[in-house]
Amino acid sequence: MKIVIIGASGHGKVAFDALKTMNGIAIAGFIDDAFEKQGKKILAVPVLGNIDFLMEELQETIDGVFVAIGNNYIRKKITERVSKQFTLVNAIHSKAIISEYASLGKGVLVVAGAIINSGSKISDGVIINTGATIDHDNFIGEYSHIAPGAHLAGNVTIGQMSFIGIGSSIIQNVVIGSNVTIGAGSVVIKDLPDNCLAVGVPAKIKKRF
């Protein structure tokens, strides 16, 4: 399958690394709206053009896309646009461990060292970053981001568009709402509602959106 990566920045490089380990994937180039990146190379792969160029000129030559945007809201917006014309692929690093009894949606990134255990469901557009662990029977909602080194115990639920910060931990059976940000290094021991920022050990709500 011939694909492009949307997002020619650091997160795009991480996705590139993951995709390079997958069989049957040929990366034709990057797509990025930043004018200064047009025509340049990232990891020896060209930036072919912007999203308009992708939609108008590459429909006949590209089989699929991976949206490598770290910001949850921008990733969702771009994915909804390009999915009307292109197949969404997953980027799963060969050094990630995923149970055969876990399920993944579309446009999912699972980075090296990540672990997803049995019974867990990873929804569309989710990022499971470097070394993050998702234990049994978790549910991760659409376009959420589990940052590097975050650890989720069993039966954890994460809503849509949430961000679980680097090095944070969530104990078993906790339910976290949508549009929630968990600060780096926090330990979550109780449920959190939608639209809040929680930080600390134990994590406490510091701001509501």
How is this structure best described in words?
This protein is α/β, with parallel strands linked by helices and 209 residues long. The protein contains three helices and 25 strands. The longest helix has 11 residues. The radius of gyration is 17 Å and the shape is globular.
Describe the structure concisely:
The chain has helices spanning 10-20, 51-57, 72-82; strands at 2-6, 26-31, 41-42, 45-49, 64-67, 87-88, 91-92, 97-98, 103-104, 109-110, 115-116, 121-122, 127-128, 133-134, 139-140, 145-146, 151-152, 157-158, 163-164, 169-170, 175-176, 180-182, 187-188, 196-199, 204-208. The protein has 209 residues and is of the alpha/beta class.
Q: Find the count of extended strands (DSSP E, 2+ residues).
A: 25
Mean model confidence by pLDDT: 98
Looking at the structure, the CATH topology of the largest domain is UDP N-Acetylglucosamine Acyltransferase, domain 1
- Quote the beta fraction: 25-35%
Q: For this structure, what is the CATH class of the largest domain?
A: Mainly Beta
- Indicate the radius of gyration in whole angstroms: 17 Å
CATH level-four homologous superfamily name of the largest domain: Hexapeptide repeat proteins
Total separate domains: 2
Overall outline: globular
Q: Name the quaternary structure.
A: single chain
Elements, N to C (H/E): EHEEEHEHEEEEEEEEEEEEEEEEEEEE
What structural class results from the helix and strand content? alpha/beta
Binned, the helix content reads 10-25%
Describe the strand arrangement of the main beta sheet, using strand numbers: 7-10-13-16-19-22-24-25
The largest pleated sheet is described as: 8 strands, mixed
